Amino acid sequence: VLMLVSIDTSNGKITLFNISRDAMVDVTMYSAGGAYAGTEKQQICLSYAYGDGKESSCENTVNSVQRLFYNIPINTYFSLDLDGIAALNDSIGGVEGQSYHLVGQQAESFVRTRDTSKVDSNNMRMQRQKVYIQSFMNTVIQQTKKDLTTPLDLFNASAPYSCTNLNPSKVTYLAQQAVLGGMNGIDM
Hints:
Elements: E1 2-8, E2 13-19, E3 24-30, E4 36-43, H1 55-68, E5 78-80, H2 83-91, E6 95-96, E7 101-102, H3 105-112, H4 121-146, H5 150-158, E8 162-164, H6 168-180, E9 186-187
Parallel strand pairs: 2-9
Antiparallel strand pairs: 1-2, 3-4, 5-8, 6-7
């Protein structure tokens, strides 16, 4: 999943832009040794591959997303390994949907699986990701309204599986601003 998240700290509004992995954008390429090799129009999902799998991969992906959104400034990134999906899901007690209650590995399977024999399998997967993320975020929002430390707990639960330039104080600040602004849900 590749998303751009906007948090309006003046009113607590959270907007998520789901970016298709198939979106074409100028991707900065690097050699195996890390030397700049130019840019080429490629699928945005490939931008992560030109890096170390951590900070430089995240920064290259941020650059690609910025290009896709006409050089919008992006200050923060958060990358989660697939193994972290189950940990985050379970740290809020699971995610309940219209027909499902997902725990552990079920969450990863739900958001990751696609039928590669179908042309639009990525779009179908993106729809499942949207359903999951909306349910996940609604659960987080409700829990945060009861306990302001919920986002920090999530941040800490994700730490072994993530790469980010966020820190605990920024997570706490954003959570406070969202709650004080009347955070009621997300737009996606």
